[in-house]
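Lecture 7 notes: from sequence to structure.
We start with the chain below.
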Amino acid sequence: MKLRLLFSLLFSSLLLSGFSQSIGLIGTASPLGNWDADVDMTQDAADPTKWTLVANLNEGACKFRQDNAWDINWGDSAFPFGTGTQGGPDIAVPTAGEYTITFNSTTGAYSFQITSDIGILGSATFGGWDFDTNMAQDPTNPDQYSITLNLLQGACKFRANDSWDINWGGTDFPSGVGTQGGADIQIPAASKYIITFNKATGAYNFEEKVEFNTIGIIGDATAGGWAEDTDLSKDPSNPNLWKKNGVQLKDGSAKFRANDAWALNWGGTDFPTGIAVPNGDNIPVDSGEYLITFNTQTLEYSFLPIVTYQTIGIIGSATPGGWDNDTDMVQDPSDKSLWKLRIVLTEGEAKFRAENDWGVNWGNGDFPSGVALPDGANIPVPAGEYVVTFNSTTGEYNFELLVLYNTVGLIGPATPNANWETDVDMTKDSNDESFWFINSIDLTTSEAKFRAEDAWTVNWGAPVWPSGIGTQDGPNIPITGGTYRVTLNSATGEFAFGDPSATYDLLKSDALTIAPNPARQFVNIQVNAAELRGDAQVILFDQAGKRVLEQQINLQENTTINVAQLLPGNYMMHLSNGKFIVGKSVVIVK
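Predicted structure tokens for the same chain:
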């Protein structure tokens, strides 16, 4: 159970990464189409660091990983060539087709070469004049080909079947008609291009794909004036959407611009919403605090005012106070727009309102989640106990149903009962009906799961050890033999097998608090257990068990990490300081 052993094994595996037992491709782009299982690559007999795979890929994302586990994995944002880094981003495969994939487990270098009879080559390309980069054939037009590619300043041509017998060139750029044996096409500037070519007509086009390192707002209405941008953050689920919450502006004007320079800038005449125009007028701005959004594709922008409310409540026939009295929600300490409440509701209707008054209220006909509108429709609510969240700036809301149990037990051949028929009952905490524990239990090396009411209708499992988030009907938990204190949060599925001498319940809500949760850009970790403080490692895993964020932090009473780059969804956060591992669930919304 010593973490020292776990860290030692991980370190050893890193040292041996160049001589792996296996390297596989995994992800929605892989032939299996999921993040659950690898498609193994073939190791080169002469060079054990080189791996290859010929496979039909889907449009999607993928990564390389070692030995069918996430401990060592490689990713990068480049395609079709790149250098993967440990824990790097997913590799986006833009076009389905048959590919020859190569990977070097020492350097991380990889390539995806689609099977095609048309390629592009030259001094402007990755392969120079010796190596064709194949283009993808349009499934609806067999004469049309395309590829998105980083090019250097230089020259290139198109050719068929990796041979000079049939090739096309031209003197025009960015578009023209290639002729057989024609001149080299001159690429005047290094950039990323969307390249298209028609082998029947010879028509070609190079469309520069503009990418933004930053999008910011600048002007005398901003804190930086006209001298310094206030940068927005890219939305992980929409690369064209940029936003920033809690921006304090004063009366004045502003514009959006890219890469902290005036080469690309946008303005407009409308406020608080509008469609920006390249090099347009300054946007007139009223003073206030705003959630600012800008879409680089549609050029839509918005300044949503953040209003400070003393109270936000839920009211209606479904609530304890009916339509006469609000049940007040609790404001998030780090985001004044976020409000939360655990409440028992009856079948009926509800709305949100501010300051116990109908002057400002929100509703919508959708359940369990939606975007409430000012003076909108009543929200239909089935009976149940819920955790309700509401954003008073965006109007987003969610009703999460809570389920409580009479009994929860641990079952499996790893338990003293050594079977899948009889549970070892856990103890329910007297102050938290979702927290269950066994203070000390002897387990053998085998498997186990948690289940409710001594039946398989509701059960939790996950293929991780010694802590994780169990999912309904999830895989068995692999148990390492020993004596443990076992804890489970039946509301979240979080579990841990820890030191039986521990006196602090690390899965209880008062040990470690994640806020806001759901989160958008930042997660604040509030640590109430002194045992957890100090130098620590934080790792976030997605629902597929893929490691998506890893960071070394100094964990103090309040610590903040940036999660703006993560896609919306449910995640498991592991915190470890070398002595304790704590798992907490985190929800990311945008």
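Points to note: Residues 1-19, 503-507 have pLDDT under 50 and may be disordered. The longest helix spans residues 3-15.
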